[in-house]
Amino acid sequence: MSKMRVVQVTRPNGPFEIVEREIPEPGADSVRVKVEACGICHSDSLTKEGAWPGIQYPRVPGHEIAGIVDAVGQDVAAWTPGQHVGIGWHGGHCGYCDSCRRGDFVTCQIAPQVPGIAYDGGYGEYVIAPASALALIPEGLSAVDAGPLMCAGVTTFNSLRNSGARPGDLVAVLGIGGLGHLGIQFASKLGFRTVAIARGMDKEPLARKLGAWSYIDSKTQDPAAELLKLGGAKVVLATVTSGDAMSATLGGLSVNGKLVILGAAAEPLQVPGIPLMLGRRSILGWPSGSSIDSQDTLAFSKLTGVRAMNEVFPLERAAEGYEHMMSGKARFRVVLTIEH
Ligand SMILES: [Zn+2]
Ligand SMILES: [Zn+2]
Question: Ligand 2 centre from 113 Cα, in Å?
Fold first, then answer.
């Protein structure tokens, strides 16, 4: 009864290994969560491939965690066993760096604690996490639904709600993948005139089903020109990994428009400086959100019906699920489920 199964990586590019470990006890400020589901995020490759500077092995990946509070440390005031909680990219913070002192926990400069990178994450039966990392899952939202909202969800929702765009503004979502299919739903539910941009007409029906008001096929149309015809975008939410595809939308930004980068671009962006200057246009990135932002994301999703489209794999098939996600074939998020 005191053992648990986890899926670990023991070296950069090493295989996933299913091993048994002792079930750990939470420290004074920590909580033990019985994991029910954990989304597989592209950033899990930082753990699998060892690209995160200073990562220690063995490491259990996973930062899209949904489960039940199982035990709480002696100094934890706000959480009790039995509560349904999520843990996302923001898995804790130092509390004393300049960012933390300004309440900007997700940009913690000293010890950003990402589950699955700084400590063992959700590819396993139990996780120990700082109490500050928990987000309450509202009643009626399943663990499989909550998991992907803890990274992909909060990243798209929180960037959009902080973008400065207001209801009725034109907002474009570039790409219809793991992030983009959530971005379209959130943009639509937040009241934006939502334009989806993707390659080929075959994705238009899905984009419209997800809430897009208009669709631009970037294979046959010039995204910038099409956005200008619609009045110019206040925000382009870039969820793709192609720098060229991002650059191609810059000319479609309205005055004060923003290109918000969520996808890790493989190549540098080509940026013409003068249009940025003359129209006060800008390019910025957005790093998910803190645990309360995740909680807001879960609550908003419950309220409005935003859900990730998930392919579900049992924990034992984590390697297969990970390969499926990395291959780009997943429609649209992959989620591990954990039997106890
Ligand atoms: Zn992630
Ligand atoms: Zn800090």
Answer: 9
Q: What is the mean pLDDT of residues 285-307?
A: 97
Q: Is 335 helix (H, G, I), strand (E, B) or coil?
A: strand
- Please give the distance, rounded to the nearest whole angstrom, from the Cα atom of residue 222 to the centre of ligand 2: 43
Q: Cα torsion for 78, 84, 87, 88, to the nearest 10°?
A: -120
Residue 158 Cα to ligand 2 middle (Å): 20
338 backbone dihedrals φ, ψ, rounded to 5°? -120, 120
Say what the pLDDT of residue 300 is: 98
Angle, helices 180-189 vs 291-304, to 10°: value is 70
CA of 287 to the centre of ligand 2 (A): 15
pTM greater than the 0.90 cutoff: yes
Q: Which ligand sits closest to the CA of 122?
A: 1
Ligand 2 center from residue 69 Cα (angstroms): 25
Distances (CA, A) of 202 to 105, 164, 175, 236, 245: 40, 31, 13, 21, 18
Q: Residue 155's closest CA among 216, 90, 226?
A: 90
Over residues 229-248, mean pLDDT: 96
Confidence at 1, pLDDT banded by 50, 70, 90: low
The residue among 268 and 309 whose pLDDT is bigger is 309
Are 172 and 239 in contact by the 8 Å Cβ rule? The answer is: no
What is the overall mean pLDDT for the chain?
96
Dump pLDDT digits (tens) for 111-155: 779 999 999 999 999 999 999 999 999 999 999 999 999 999 999
Structure tokens at 331: 């429609």
What separation in Å is there between the alpha carbon of 230 and the centre of ligand 1?
32
Q: Please provide residue 9's backbone torsions phi and psi, each rounded to the nearest 5 degrees.
A: -120, 135
Find the ligand nearest to 96 CA. 2
